[in-house]
Amino acid sequence: MQRKIEKSREIIAETFDLPKDIVLNVPKITIIGNDEITIENHKGIILFERNVIKVNTKVKAINIEGENFEILYIGDSTITISGKFKSISYEV
């Protein structure tokens, strides 16, 4: 039943050209250069180390690898991280 509701929301978002990140509550990732990243609609931090961060989302966990990470801002649904990013991927 939950899957049908999600599929209906996806169809509505596409039909009315609405932003999927808002309608479906999926993550929106904004990268500025290779030293700042903002993730909206996150569900919390799973792992935080100086060279690896794992952020939980509704879809999958996001793995970020790099150096000298620092949290610039964290709120209920938004997190901004600085550092030197080498890779950003969804957990398989």
From TrEMBL:
It comes from the Bacteria. InterPro entries: Spore_YabP/YqfC, Spore_YqfC. Pfam families: YabP. This is Sporulation protein YqfC. It comes from Clostridium tertium.
